[in-house]
Design a protein that fits this description.
The chain is an alpha/beta fold and 314 residues long. The protein contains 10 helices and 17 strands. The longest helix is centred in the C-terminal third of the chain and has 21 residues.
């Protein structure tokens, strides 16, 4: 842990980027309590990534990284009983670094949606199956339905139909996609154009299920290990596309956006008064008559006058 943090912070300083320590959590019961993930990079930051299951490990990382890292990012999705306490513990320990939070499942769901947009851009009228409809699987299922797919969510318990009904209730009014819930994976994947495995790392998609997919289907291993070896071999034989979901598709962009938001709120947004005239920018709701500007640092780029209700009179 120490070596990984020191190495990333040294690279960040050498390249003029922010040094970031990420503390993620996992719901996988068979994972070891401490995993050093691959380093994360963007034009803005260099980061080291740890996946931990125990509060004491998260606290140790925070204690060592505080003051060495510019930012410490904590996963706040509460994937385990102790993980739900990570953010509170970090707030109590961190004094020098800046504390930020992120939601790992949201990043993974976004990565999956981007991958789908690239490999299967038009899902209208096509069947899709999500095997393992927990938090992440349901988020992905909703995205698929919003893209027009007929989505079948598969869970081991009997809550699938109720969850599908709840997700259908929040779909856009004119969405053509719909969600269905159940526990029969075999029927769910039959004829599917897309099948995604989101179980906790154990194989649930076999060769026979793969053979029942629609031609040129897309298979995504989201839970890492959800597609069996026989299924992969059958998919290659039939000409299906098999992908392991890589969260890096979205991860760095989301972190960059979080860092950008800090700068936006501290630099672009704000309120100023000059010669009795008040100016607002960046989402600050001005009083009626305040001048709304594009950037509070440049009062010449005026967008109009505030109407006092959040709108602009041009």
């Amino acid at each position: 842990m120490i070596a990984a943090i020191d190495s990333c912070m040294e690279e960040a300083r050498a390249t003029g980027r922010s040094g970031v320590v990420f503390i993620g959590a996992t719901a996988k019961a068979d994972n070891p309590p401490f995993i050093v993930g691959p380093a994360r990079h963007s034009k803005q930051f260099v980061g080291c990534y740890f996946i931990v299951a125990e509060l004491k490990l998260a606290e140790s990382i925070c204690a060592y990284a505080d003051g060495k890292a510019d930012y410490i990012f904590i996963d706040t999705e509460g994937k385990g009983k102790e993980a739900a306490q990570f953010a509170a513990a970090a707030r109590a320990l961190i004094r020098k670094s800046k504390l930020k939070t992120f939601k790992g499942n949201d990043m993974t769901a976004l990565a999956c949606d981007i991958l789908l947009a690239e490999l299967q851009p038009d899902m209208s009228g096509h069947k899709a199956a999500v095997i393992g409809a927990g938090n992440l699987g349901c988020k992905t299922g909703l995205q698929l339905a919003e893209r027009g797919a007929d989505v079948h969510l598969v869970r081991r318990d009997d809550r699938g139909p109720a969850i599908a009904a709840a997700l259908n209730a929040i779909l856009p009014k004119h969405a053509t996609g719909r969600l269905h819930g159940g526990d029969d994976a075999v029927s769910a994947v039959c004829g599917a154009k897309v099948v995604i495995g989101f179980t906790q790392g154990f194989p649930v998609i076999d060769g026979a299920m793969t053979a029942s997919l629609a031609p040129q289907a897309l298979m995504i291993d989201g839970g890492i290990g959800t597609i069996g070896e026989a299924a992969i071999a059958e998919a290659n034989r039939l000409g299906h596309t098999v992908m392991r979901l890589d969260a890096r598709i979205a991860f760095s962009h989301v972190v960059d956006a979080i860092l950008d938001a800090e700068r936006f709120l501290t630099e672009t947004a704000g309120m100023r008064e000059v010669n009795g005239q008040r100016y607002v920018a960046g989402g600050i709701i001005g009083a009626q008559g305040d001048i709304v500007v594009f950037d509070i640092r440049d009062l010449s780029r005026q967008l109009g006058k505030a109407d006092g209700k959040g709108g602009i009179v041009r």
